[in-house]
Amino acid sequence: MAAPMGDLGPCKKKMKEMTTADGDTSIAPASTASPGVNIPHPVPVLSDDIMAPVPLIDVYVAPVLDKKQTSRLIKEVSSRFPLPDLLHLKRVNSQKSGNKETTIQILLSKAPSSEDGSSADSESRDPTENGFHFDGLGKPFLTKVAVRPAITRRQFEHCVQYWPTAFHEDKLLERRLKGDFFTSEELQSIQKYMQRALQAAQHAKQTGMEPVGAVVVDPVADEVIGVGHDLRHAGNPLHHAVMVAVDTVASSQDGGYWDHRGETGSS
């Protein structure tokens, strides 16, 4: 559906004024002076599940008094205290003490989370209050473990300080975290495209808009196919820089909602 001329309001006039002389659909010309901002090395924007340490919870564990009984105890404990939500954890933790003797602990159950000892989680129970007794195990005690699997090696190294846990490394993710995901040629391209976005932002500032710019890049052709900057002050609160940049791409392909050359685009 074609957008009525009146719907564009002052934004239509402002966008027409910013169209380059050669018909480029970019909102800001590439020759705009650089704002002189030093562009840092790109860093990944990742979720807290990846960047933050894995949360810890309390669990009950018990020492193995006779190491020869470890296999039997693992089977009996696993049968009585199944832990389907903690399958990333090893059931046994072996540690060497100061005298180089190996001590073995077995994971029993999750501890109740509330102050009164109750919990809606069927896996959470206090083994000392349920007639706990396994021949060959010592008195249970509380310790901390990771509540979920580690996603990154950094998280894994933090988790194993508390209890052994399985870990499957995502090599692609680790490259992103280490900062060597991009080649030197790709970094040069990123710098170039970011500079173009900053130029658009500077152009917006000079025309009384918010200094925010956006660039759309064709990764196959490795070239800019759309540039835009903030136009919300021109009359439409939806005219964010990204929205405008995307529309310039559509306009270059005989589409688009806003008219950059004085003709109403189609929706």
Q: How would you sum up this structure, described in words?
A:
By secondary structure, this protein is an alpha+beta fold. The chain has two domains: 5-42 and 182-252, no CATH class; 50-170, no CATH class. Helices cover 30% and strands 15% of the residues. The strands form two sheets. Strands 2-3-1-4 form a four-stranded antiparallel sheet, covered by helices on one side. Strands 5-6 form a two-stranded antiparallel sheet. The longest helix has 23 residues, at 184-206. It starts with a helix and ends in a 15-residue tail after the last helix. Residues 1-35, 109-135 are annotated as: Disordered.
C-alpha geometry: elongated
Distance N terminus to C terminus? 5 Å
Number of domains: 2
Content of β-strand: 15-25%
Helix content: 25-40%
- State the low-pLDDT regions, or none: 1-25, 31-35, 114-120, 260-267
Summed up, the helix count is 7
Radius of gyration: 30 Å
Summing up helix and strand content along with how strands pair, one would put the structural category as alpha+beta
Number of strands: 6
Cofactor: Zn(2+)
GO molecular function, one term: catalytic activity
Region (Disordered): 1-35, 109-135
Organism: Branchiostoma floridae (Florida lancelet)
